[in-house]
Description:
- By secondary structure, the chain is of the alpha/beta class.
- The chain has two domains: 266 residues, Rossmann fold (3-Layer(aba) Sandwich); 83 residues, formyl-coa transferase, domain 3 (2-Layer Sandwich).
- It has 17 helices and eleven strands.
- Strand 1, helix 1 and strand 2 form a beta-alpha-beta unit.
- Helix 1 packs across helix 7, helix 6 packs across helix 8 and helix 7 packs across helix 8.
Amino acid sequence: MGKALEGIRILDMTHVQSGPTATQILAWFGADCIKVERPGAGDATRGQLRDLEDVDSLYFTMLNHNKRSITLNPKTETGNKIFAKLIEECDVMVENFAPGAIDRMGFPWEKIQEINPRMIYASVKGFGPGPYEDCKVYENVAQCTGGSASTTGEIGRVPLVTGAQIGDSGTGIHLVAGILAALLHRERSGRGQRVECAMQDSVLNLCRVKLRDQQRIVHGPLTEYPQYPNGTFGEAVPRAGNASGGGQPGWIVKCKGWEDDPDSYIYVITQAAAFHAFAKAIGREDWLDDPEWNTPAARLPKLDQVFAEIEKWTMTKTKFEVMDILNPLNVPCGPILSMKELAEEPSLRATGTIVEVDHPTRGKYLTVGNPIKLSDSPSEVVASPLLGEHTEEILKDIIGFGDEEIEKARTEGAI
């Protein structure tokens, strides 16, 4: 079985997280991903948040699997020629530099098209065209400007960013979709095109249900939010704590051991279809014959009391015991799983979602494997490259340099 993107070559001009997320997925699918890094320095994340001295950080290694690394300074005469040749030989160029950085290297889109009309040029930006398009954006800025932070957090408290990297990695995943669409279009048209993903746009796409609610709120209160019916609504979608965004009442409740374990909690949803069995399970069968409790409309004003009763029951059991009891009853629920629990989960190891990788300098470490599974094109996870590890290999195989030309490029500071 061949790799899905075998034969596709990526010119990886990315750094930090959003761009490397995209190129790593393409590399997992079998594309030859050539990561271009500054001589002597490389991607800044190689040295950020190090846990071991003088080795590449986990920040870098977990975002750059399956790639080849070449060090290159395109601002030198030889480096400029090498870069132009890489553009000619690659199918996709991906970058997440500040606006205009590639142009200042002497390679605006028009020149790239002249060199390689089939080139797909993919970029991550902070904002789309508009008043902020030249501003730099980082993860939390994207979450704040894309609508996530304003709708996340406890009721009446400050906005919160989420621990999930929806700005950086979320945008990288969106960019992959655009790149694959452009590759498919190229098969029909024979020409490449620009692909751009703004971090603000990607976060907003992930917050689309909140944009849905913004349009609903002008017609009356949002009845599935905890503020209804005893609270107040303003003009914008409010923060709603752990309430379900899907219209079904849900909340996080304590489980046995919560006093000492910060993750002894479970999320439960009280769907009407499963409420009869749920009430019996928690010992509140009396609700089923009581008109004050036996309909969704009757329970809606008293959801805090409903979940308080549920919590009395869940506090007598571990989160996994709650799962074992409620799942056969078709009650949607999910334990709060810590990163330690996820790292040690055998089923995630079996599916390749959690992978142990052996790195040449840091040894073995865990990483997240390809979350996208293809039946006929399996993915493998290969250790991230050392800085410039494949420079000579790439110069010989792709650029066509001999030993003397490589030495000249090194003397000039091009590599």
